[in-house]
Amino acid sequence: MSESKLISIVIPVFNEEPNLDELVDRCIKAGRQTGRPFELILVNDGSSDGSEKKIAAAGEQYPGLVFGVILNRNYGQHNAVMAGLEASKGEIIVTLDADLQNPPEEIPRLVECIETGYDVVGTVRKNRQDSFFRKVASSITNKVVQHYTGVMMTDYGCMLRAYRRHIVDAMLECTERSTFIPVLANSFAGAATEIEVSHHDRSKGRSKYDLWKLINLQFDLLTSMSTLPLRLLSVFGVIISAAGFGFGILLLLMRLIYGATWAAEGVFTLFAVLFVFVGAQFIGMGLLGEYLGRVYHDVRARPRYFVRRTVGNPKSEQQINQRMDS
Ligand code: UDP
Ligand code: MG
Questions:
Q1: Which one of 76, 165, 224, 254 has the fewest beta carbons within 10 angstroms of its own beta carbon?
Q2: How many angstroms does the Cα of residue 103 sit away from the middle of ligand 1?
């Protein structure tokens, strides 16, 4: 029975033309190695290079095996994966990156592992091949996420992951715009585990994440997880007000004891205090803005993505687009 379970491999593609041939080859080999039926779904996230053509060619070369979902523009990695998940039909769904940093050869191991009774299988990158800055940022993020989701996973950044159908269906029911898939999945997972996988340097093409995109991703992650920052904000505000009040009394006393000369010099101290408050207010307003912006996005409820066409017809464009319209 378990032998016939369909496996879907979902890959977001954004300007990965030089990697695509090798990617498709290696994924198909890995898929065959699982000994089960499988489908490979490539989501073109508005690439401006020849990725779309390559995906269409792969779809023609492997009919019924390789499918393409072509989005009409760039919606970001996580939205692209969502479009791929919506198109997938498998009982077990594996996601990975198109840049071959995650070796497709690990797919059979992931499938085996999830078959031992897990909802989600994450991965930890052995010898992660990324810059020092990104590794430090990731390790802080991982700690925070662990704390809020309560699911112990060491590496939330690695997209080489396997999910069961019911987890994917639950994720697809979520209509919020700023998603961070690994965290979303874990919030529905009963049993989750992780295995070690190898990680390679990006050989062709460049990383699609610059500093700004990484900062955006961090905000998505934080605000998608909890409203705790908002509460912290109030706590912070109370502490600052209390400190300010205490400081005011101190200044008054000093004025009474040492007279007006002291107070005149104290003007600068006052400025310093004022700047602390003004700074805190700005932090607060910024944070409120972050949440408000997300509420605004969700209230408008625009589609997360729009599928322009499909290759090999995994499901029709309407079917993939449908959920967001209803
Ligand atoms: N990607 C995407 N849309 C984007 C950015 C990235 O579909 O807007 C895809 C990209 O093609 C790759 C994966 O997401 O398959 C991870 O991107 P990248 O390797 O640039 O990220 P990094 O490894 O640097 O975190
Ligand atoms: Mg990469």
A1: 254
A2: 15
